[in-house]
Amino acid sequence: MTQRVAHIITRCVAGAGGVAVRGAVSLPRDLYSSTLVVGSGDVLLDAARAHGVDVVVVPDLVSPISPAQDARAYRSLDSFLRSESFDIVHTHSAKAGVLGRVAASRAGVPRIVHTLHGFPWHDFQPAVVRQAYIRTERTLARITDAYLAVGTGVAVEALRRRVVRPDQLVTIGPAVEPAPVIASPASRARARTLLGLPEDATVVGTVGRMDFQKAPEVMLEALTRMRTPAVLVWVGGGPLLEETARRAEAAGIRDRVVLLGNREDVPQLLPAFDVFAMSSRYEGLPCAIVEAQECGIPVVATSVNAVSDVVVPGVSGLLVAPQDPAQLAAALDHALTHPRQAASWAEHARAQLGTRYEAGTLGATLCEVYTPEQAGPQSVPIPLHGWGRAS
């Protein structure tokens, strides 16, 4: 008998959205029927529809706390879940995780699952806010049957904060597409042509939403401190895009900063990077890092949450402290001036990924979590090329 699954996420974009959609479409269709419930989304919604996933948009489901909109979003979710009789509700992200799980519990949904892509709490917010988020998640654990943590660091933090029970928790990797383009002299030349960059330029690149979490101002300051003259390419839009452009102008480096905004051809652009850099203050385990490693690009990233699952210091990349532009600059200089070592990091990183980060692996795990008494149904890996995005 086919089980009906509602996958609920606030913003179906970037890394978390990709994991949600790739998981949904990798489930065996003879066992599960999926509906994606979102507040907003991008090309991922088209990809979901193309693979037979129904999409329902709840416009009041937004990321910022908004009491009036949150109340309307909850009523919409409550009404929808009561009318559709789902067997499983699987939530993603903080806002959808709260409203979706409460609505699912009150609607009597038999099984409730939540994915921890990261946390709404972090070290760069007031302690009272952090504690409020932690208390909320501890309360929600009482109505949550299972948690999926994206990366070991996320799982450890959840356990350390006592927001989950050990028996509730399964650690997963973020599902990404197999790299359609591998770094090579030819792909590098094509990517730099797409970006309008000289073939002999030194390029530090990143992919991510321009917001407080990703710390674009830290990346800019690191660029000014680097001894190696490099161009920074940032793929991704967001609320800090214009401010970042102004900061680059004020620092006198605007001619060395390429801000691309959102792009759908990220896999084709990655080979342009000599090094992939991440300056985030906090993360779960970004899909963009795994995608860069799949492509064969060496990585320098901040040592936050589960990033160390894939960036092992001195083995498959370099890690630096968050919000430390001097350390980030030094690490980038080292990677760029030691190309053989950086190439060995990239090679080791690709080798260590294995099948852990494939959509089919996630689909098989979802089957076990959704229907534990029937563990072992095989998911079908589905090719999802063309889902390029700025995460």
TrEMBL record:
The keyword Transmembrane does not apply. The keyword Methyltransferase does not apply. Gene3D superfamilies: Glycogen Phosphorylase B. It comes from the Bacteria. Residues 195-351 form the Glycosyl transferase family domain. Keywords: Glycosyltransferase, Transferase. This is Glycosyltransferase family 4 protein. Residues 24-178 form the Glycosyltransferase subfamily 4-like N-terminal domain.
